[in-house]
Amino acid sequence: MHLAEYLALRPVPGAGVVMALTGRCPLACAHCSTDASADGLDPPAGALLRFAESFAGPHPPSVALLTGGEPLLRPRLVRDLAERCRAAGTAAFVLTGMFWARTARVPAPVAAALDAVDHVSASLDAFHEREVPRRAVFTALRRLLDTGKDVSLHLLADGPGGPAGAGVDEVVAAVRGEFGDRVPMLVGRLAAVGRGSSLLPEPDAGSSAVAPPCAMAAWPVVAVDGTVTACCNQHVLDRRPVPGHLLLGHAASDTWTDIRGRTVGSPALRAVRTLGPHALARTAADGSGGPGDPGGPGRSGCDVCRSLRSGPAPRVAASAEALEGPVLRLQELAGPAGFARRYGSARHAGLVLLGGPSCAG
């Protein structure tokens, strides 16, 4: 599966699932959104495998993104999950920081895991290059390409004088100089979570921006402790309790059918995906809303969403249900580049189409 095919599915409710396999990572990248460390936690493999086995039912996820921490610190688990995904017709993506590329010989368990998954997405930016040399990443990617593996790169955009150091355009040029158009790239933005929060200025409290509908609430996310949330923001994944409207269940006790049903059917999540968190906050069923409350301007959409304490009023729920189809169709028409433009660097959005199917854009 090509990166563009993955991104085309990202706004579709229940089309995929994100699974954190570990809170550990051998790298210490300054911009890490998860704040992973060498002594992070590992969720029980049995619970994750049982959950993946439940994909083999009605409406399996099209994609499972295996992440962490560094998921390839648990290569046997990556391989076993990929096998269960394949049995259910689910494509397995692994997102890696490429620690294993620092040596000339890839460890056999890691090589087996890489062979089992359908797509390998690697991180490459100034922060990662302090941990894993660019040349080592290129060598590893070329080996994967030579075996026919789909690969992609996650890069970090930076503005003038930004914290990432080397300009993203220089990295893009180096990738294209090495691989031509064979490797698609998703250029993201630095997030104010984890270690990365120390690299960004304080948000402007006077900002009047209102968050648009949130496509990131479309896929369930299995956190390191097994909790399944409707949000990939680390403030939700790392803190307990999870806000009620974002809590979907637990990997040790719920099946994919359970989790998907709650994702697709929740009136609150439908309103977040269709109207946006600010609109939902101003029209909550408990009557909250108006100047100065969580739905007012000056707070990010993520802050507003986490502050919600009730679902939408009935008329708002009905409006969200009626609009869900048209909103999703607009997102599908925008395609993978449209998604990348919205959630990453707009100027580099077209890079996600490199090497992809001609119909991807």
UniProtKB/TrEMBL annotation:
Gene3D superfamilies linked: Aldolase class I
Domain Radical SAM core positions: 21-150
Entry keyword annotation includes S-adenosyl-L-methionine: yes
Name of the protein: Radical SAM protein
Domain of life: Bacteria
Compositionally biased residues, Gly residues: 287-299
Keywords from the named record: Iron, Iron-sulfur, Metal-binding, S-adenosyl-L-methionine
Region Disordered, residue ranges: 282-301
Pfam families reported in the protein's UniProt record: Radical_SAM
UniProt KW Ion transport keyword: no
